[in-house]
């Protein structure tokens, strides 16, 4: 019956024999047996539903997921060919109780990062108080002096964040990196859920999966809330680099679901300290720009002069308070991996709290002692550039060749500020359907948070990315990664608000009652197609038979 | 044009539109049942059955499967998609000499390929297929039929059915929460979600959504748009201009209901939505009957009874 999971534990058993560290598996507590039989509580229902399927059946469904994505255009370019964005049929499940911790950890982190950015581009109190060295800030590639003094009306800089989390060898959540520039991937969360419900409905049955469709609405509210104070009905636009951008699908989806205009740089122009877009009805003022263009390309007057993607003067308009750029310019300094190492201190400094979700242990290579230790143990550590995101430029020591390590060594000695080192964390694994069958694969999680100035709202779930090659620890869609639908399941329906849940039940009952009392309207029918008492058809047939029948008789009579 | 033919065209229009509308409503509501765990499935399914004008068995709990079996593929159930598809095809067969061959083949194929069972993971595909077939049929008529009476009767049927479908949908105000999601569902059922978002800049509110689906003069599935188009078809079939009033009963009924909707404050309608929508459905039925009485009088005379014996 559990043929789907046959051989699932093979690799883990092998690793255990060799004494290598093994990852935390999210579905099965015990991987020593070849074919696991008992799932963790969160996965019980999913496991039961999957166990009823054969591998062929599940592969058929996976093919259906892919063809649906191909039809919708949820694709990425692979060697000049459109491939559907890979979505695995097995969802990741997180229980509501656990999710509350994750959620509060994310909220805390976003609040701390907001305070940090406001401080860095303002009084720099943290520097004066010696919490973070001034040199670190000014040497960050993404610290932009041009951003100083630009503040949105509600003081929010991080309207959208995508903080990457992982679970370590004991299943504890840790922050892998902060992402408060232009985090992408939320469109996959929304479209994954839809296509999963269409293709694998039986998995949803009996599970109370918290819906994710509210995101565009929350985002729009947050963007509107950040608009210049003088504007009554703000005009929000999404700024995209254009159709060739790899996240273009996401830009169109967000614009579509928010009902706002999707603009490119050439659709905008600045005049009189304001930003306008060219429309058939003449210039229309723009109040909030949700930009999906990097800082460096936003304004050729301030950053790269050769940029075609932005609009000259946009930053001046923002400085004058006539337009809000979301997320704010200069946020990149908070994504710097060296700043990341200070985050627990910064949380304590700004919020007076301890970090709810800890960082991954990190060596700062500017410290000579740390550098020495890291150089010694280069083959057992992960080394990352401080300003790369999504695994760009990352070197995994145990997997690297001697030549690669030698190059890395010279790079580290030349520019210790540019790198950090971390121990190899075995990311948690989740069952994933690959060529050999159902196998454990490493995954991370990017929960999306929207800050509207009064509250930080965290999308229940987020984007789970999974590395498809065996043992691969770098999880990124540009490096052959897949994704999973992420379910936060409420153990009881009225978890977050008892009254609201009861209201919903009541409403449903009310409405059902309403319809009944109003009387049901049967649909109209053509007199000839009426469902009951219609015997014309039979009569016509009978008549044909009747007229056909006498003929042979007559013939017979003639004979 | 023969009354019998005109009648067939009228009903082809209605049945095509009905299969399309039913598929949309079922698709979105059944999907929502999966995505939103806080809906009571049985109640929602009952409500869905009532919405389509059929009685639900009160003695047992209903599931998605029951709704699918009843409203999608049951060939005997008068409100099902299969029934509408079959009826459209039968009507086309009766008017085979007038109906363009392309349309006939389209309807005939649809009817022949109508599945008897739909697996739960294929429902979305199935509804998508029904919508595509309807779109194909409508497109064939749009692009290849002269704008004569045949076209007017077809469009008249379509418009009336559209008004009826939208009114039905509005009447129950959906099966879920009072705020955002349920209106989103209704809008999506009508394929109106994206137009709505563009028109109202994405702020979902009961008032705006109802206004859009009831009164928008530009959105083709809104009640007012559909009724206006039906009225226009009627006027063009009989271009006489009287100095006083309107003599055609169907035009009268439609004009009355449209004015009622257009000139009444929107909050008045909203506060009493299900009754108001009942009146709209009533008016559509009355208009349909009036059109029948006037243009297809033969249908009242089924004369085969004597010959069978």
UniProtKB/TrEMBL annotation, chain A:
Region annotation Disordered: where it falls in the sequence: 514-559
Domain of life: Bacteria
InterPro entries (alphabetical): ATP-dep_Glu-Cys_Ligase-2, CP_ATPgrasp_2, UCP005522
Pfam families xref list: CP_ATPgrasp_2
Biased composition (Basic and acidic residues): 522-532
Leader peptide range in chain numbering: none
Residue ranges of every copy of the Circularly permuted ATP-grasp type domain listed in the record: 91-467
Residue spans of biased composition, Low complexity class: 538-553
The protein, known as: Circularly permuted type 2 ATP-grasp protein
Organism name: Cryobacterium cryoconiti
UniProtKB/TrEMBL annotation, chain B:
InterPro entries: ATP-dep_Glu-Cys_Ligase-2, DUF403
Protein name (record): Alpha-E domain-containing protein
Domain of life the protein comes from: Bacteria
Residue ranges of every copy of the DUF403 domain listed in the record: 1-296
């Amino acid at each position: 019956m559990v043929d789907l999971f046959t051989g699932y534990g093979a690799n883990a058993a092998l690793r255990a024999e060799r004494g290598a560290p093994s990852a935390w598996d999210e579905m099965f507590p015990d991987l020593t047996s070849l074919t696991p039989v008992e799932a963790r509580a969160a996965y019980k229902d999913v496991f039961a539903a999957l166990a009823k399927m054969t591998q062929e059946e599940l592969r058929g469904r996976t093919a259906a997921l892919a063809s649906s994505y191909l039809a919708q255009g949820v694709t990425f370019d692979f060697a000049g060919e459109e491939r559907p964005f890979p979505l695995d049929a097995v969802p990741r499940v997180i229980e509501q109780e656990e999710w509350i911790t994750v959620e509060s950890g994310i909220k805390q982190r976003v609040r701390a990062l907001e305070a940090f950015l406001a401080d860095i581009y303002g009084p720099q109190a943290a520097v004066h108080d010696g919490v973070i060295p001034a040199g670190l800030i000014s040497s960050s590639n993404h610290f932009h002096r041009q951003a100083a003094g630009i503040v949105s009306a509600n003081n929010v800089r991080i309207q959208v964040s995508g903080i990457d989390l992982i679970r370590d060898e004991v299943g504890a959540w840790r922050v892998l990196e902060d992402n408060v520039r232009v985090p992408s991937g939320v469109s996959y969360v929304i479209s994954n859920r839809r296509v999963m419900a269409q293709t694998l409905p039986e998995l949803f049955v009996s599970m109370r999966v918290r819906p994710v469709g509210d995101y565009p609405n929350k985002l729009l509210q947050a963007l509107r809330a950040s608009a210049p104070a003088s504007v009554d009905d703000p005009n929000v636009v999404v700024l995209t680099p254009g159709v060739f951008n790899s996240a273009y699908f996401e830009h169109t989806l967000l614009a579509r679901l928010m009902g706002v205009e999707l603009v490119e740089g050439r659709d905008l122009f600045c005049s009189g300290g304001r930003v306008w877009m060219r429309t058939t009805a003449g210039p229309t003022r723009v109040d909030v720009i949700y930009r999906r263009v990097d800082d460096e390309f936003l304004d050729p007057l301030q950053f790269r002069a050769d940029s075609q993607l932005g609009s000259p003067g946009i930053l001046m308009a923002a400085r004058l308070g006539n337009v809000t750029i979301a997320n704010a310019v200069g946020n990149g300094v908070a994504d710097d991996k060296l700043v990341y190492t200070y985050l627990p201190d910064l949380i304590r400094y700004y919020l007076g709290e301890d970090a709810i979700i800890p960082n991954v242990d990190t060596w700062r290579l500017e410290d000579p002692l740390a550098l020495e230790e890291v150089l010694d143990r280069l083959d057992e550590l992960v080394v990352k550039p401080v300003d790369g995101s999504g695994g760009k430029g990352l070197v995994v020591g145990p997997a690297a060749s001697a030549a690669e390590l030698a190059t890395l060594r010279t790079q580290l000695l030349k520019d210790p500020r540019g790198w950090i080192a971390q121990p190899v964390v075995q990311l948690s694994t989740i069952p994933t359907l690959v060529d050999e069958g159902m196998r454990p694969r490493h995954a991370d999680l990017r929960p999306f948070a929207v800050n509207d100035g009064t509250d930080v709202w965290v999308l229940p779930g987020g984007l789970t990315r999974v590395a498809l090659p065996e043992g691969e620890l770098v999880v990124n869609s540009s490096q052959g990664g897949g994704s999973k639908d992420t379910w936060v399941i409420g153990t009881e329906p009225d978890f977050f608000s008892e009254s609201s849940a009861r209201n919903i039940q009541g409403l449903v009952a009310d409405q059902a009652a309403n319809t009944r009392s109003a009387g049901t309207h049967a649909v109209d029918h053509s007199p000839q197609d009426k469902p009951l008492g219609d015997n014309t058809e039979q009569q016509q047939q009978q008549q044909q038979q009747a007229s056909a029948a006498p003929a042979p008789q007559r013939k017979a009579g003639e004979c | 044009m023969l009354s019998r033919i005109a009648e067939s065209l009228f009903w082809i229009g209605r049945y095509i539109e009905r299969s399309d509308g039913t598929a949309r409503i079922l698709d979105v509501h059944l999907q929502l049942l999966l995505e939103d765990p806080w809906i009571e499935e049985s109640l929602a399914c009952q409500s869905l059955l009532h919405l389509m004008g059929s009685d639900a068995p009160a003695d047992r709990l209903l599931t998605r499967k029951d709704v699918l079996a009843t409203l999608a593929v049951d060939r005997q159930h008068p409100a099902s998609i299969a029934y509408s598809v079959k009826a459209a095809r039968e009507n086309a067969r009766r008017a085979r000499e007038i109906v363009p061959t392309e349309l006939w083949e389209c309807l005939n194929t649809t009817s022949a390929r109508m599945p008897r069972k739909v697996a739960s993971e294929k429902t979305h595909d199935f509804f998508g297929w029904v919508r595509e077939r309807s779109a194909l049929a409508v497109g064939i008529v749009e692009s290849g039929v002269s704008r004569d009476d045949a076209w007017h009767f077809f469009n008249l049927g379509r418009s009336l059915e559209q008004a009826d479908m939208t009114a039905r949908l509005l009447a129950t105000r959906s099966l879920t929460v009072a705020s955002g999601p349920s209106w989103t569902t209704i809008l999506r059922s009508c394929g109106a979600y994206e137009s709505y978002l563009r028109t109202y800049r994405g702020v979902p509110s009961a008032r705006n959504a109802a206004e859009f689906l009831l009164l928008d003069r530009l959105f083709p599935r809104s009640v007012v748009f559909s009724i206006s188009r039906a009225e226009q078809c009627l006027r063009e079939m009989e271009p006489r201009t009287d100095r006083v009033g309107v003599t055609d009963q169907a035009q009268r009924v439609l004009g009355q209901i449209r004015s009622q909707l257009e000139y009444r404050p929107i909050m008045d309608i909203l506060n009493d939505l299900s009754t108001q929508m009942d009146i709209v459905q009533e008016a559509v039925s009355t208009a349909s009957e009036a059109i029948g009485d006037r243009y297809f009088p033969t249908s009242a005379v089924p004369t085969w009874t004597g010959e069978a014996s």
